[in-house]
Design brief:
Elements: E1 3-4, E2 11-12, E3 19-30, E4 33-38, E5 57-60, E6 63-74, H1 76-84
Antiparallel strand pairs: 1-2, 3-6, 4-5
The structure holds zinc ion (ZN).
Length: 85
């Protein structure tokens, strides 16, 4: 698909790969959530998996991470410049 590079503003012909470069990121905190992950199937005493999935739900501890706010679609030339600088 054709696209216009966000850095050099040149129209790129079809077949030229594009690279998305994040220009703005934000730090996010994910809250802890209770009882949302399914437990793995329990094994029976015979060593086989139980017929029914366990109803037990495990919590998610939450945590920190990063999200992309803004990104630029760049041609191979501009993405090479970005990685070398
Ligand atoms: Zn470019």
């Amino acid at each position: 698909m054709m696209y216009r590079c966000d850095r050099c503003h040149q129209q790129q012909p079809a077949g030229v790969p594009s690279t998305l470069i994040p220009t703005e990121i934000r730090r996010v905190t994910y809250p802890a959530r209770v009882g949302i992950h399914a437990s793995p199937p329990a094994k029976t005493s015979a060593g086989r998996y139980a017929q029914r999935a366990s109803r037990e739900r495990r919590p998610d501890p939450g945590g920190h991470g990063h999200e992309t706010v803004r990104e630029e679609r760049c041609c191979p030339c501009c993405s090479a410049d970005h990685h070398s600088s």
